[in-house]
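Ticket #4471: structure output looks truncated?

Reporter: J.K.
Steps to reproduce: submitted the chain below (395 residues) through the standard prediction queue, then opened the result file.
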Amino acid sequence: MLFKRGELKLLWPFYLDSVISFILFFYPAFIVVYLLDIGLTPFRIGILMAVYAVSVILFEIPTGAFADLYGRKASVMLGYFFEIFVSLGIYFFKDYYSLMGLFIFWGFAYTFYSGASEAWRVDLINKKNKRLLNGFLMKRHSLVSAGLVISGFLGVFVVSNFGLSSIWLFGAASFAVSMIILLFAQEEFTRENLHIKDSFINIFRQVKESAKYSCSHPILIPLSIVIFIFTASMFFNEGLTWVPLLKNYNFPNYAFGYMWAFMGAIGIFAPIFTKKLLKENKEKNLLVFITFLYLLSLVSIIFVSGIISAFIVLFLTTFFLNAKMPLDTIYFHKFIPSKMRATIGSFESLISHFSSAIAPILVGFLVTGIGAKYTIFSGAFLIIPVLIIYYLIKE
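Returned output as attached by the reporter:
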């Protein structure tokens, strides 16, 4: 059976949200295209991405602790509510400094659900039926990808008929739909009646305990280093490089929706590949294997000479990246106690955003200087230390 007994009764809002809301969530496919279209250079786009990351750094841990104290569901809902205003703001304001302010607020909004959304799902499953967790993570990833496939084709239609700026209206609608669906989701959380002063004391106490736990854990330390390096490497293999590369081969703006659908389709099947290979307590070995294949796919960019070969490399890198992502989540949560899950998740997200505050500026500079293809190739060198660290981890 695809779903185990009682699984849909418990998790149907999360599964439904994974498909329905993501059908409307196609602005990531066009965001770099949109920013280039309104006249920004790759370097200036990189600065906006870095500003967003700095905002996340400033607010990540306090809002993660907020979720631990007041509930993951409340935190996620508030973050999604703020996201609606961000999307509408970007739709109406196009000058660079207004966009910078909106990207700052965007980072703030994101922190309310960055660690809390995953902790909400994981804690609920662990309390109700632990055996559902691995299957849920794999299936949800595939369902999100299925929603993104449909969203890519919808994005082509919307951009072709209503223009690039309309992507932000649909982005706002996506978060609104998520809020409605997730109102029906259960939450395993006991709220405490605290005064504001006590709440802030608890926030900083939890932050301190979570940081201390992460920094003293023999496996979370190397995994934190991996998160920092791998996050930086992903900017070398995302829209900031691929959009300019494909546009060099005369790829039209609306067709990036097809690319988004193509990548979403890969995301449906890649986790199945991971699940078939995954054996109990062998997550690390599989991480090393898949990361090595991802490295080889990045190196192959050097042989790209046209649109067809570019899409072959894009297929390979996207496949192995999507095969790796759910495995990363499973391996990471294996070492985290439930009471610290949201805060440690936010702490690790903080590390990735330190990396994100540096990498996009460097990538934007390199794309302008040496071109998109060689920028993607240079990102492969960051995967080598990731492989070494995975290999050296002693569980």
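Triage note (M.O.): checked the attachment and the full token line is present. The two ends are 33 Å apart (CA to CA).
Status: closed, working as intended.
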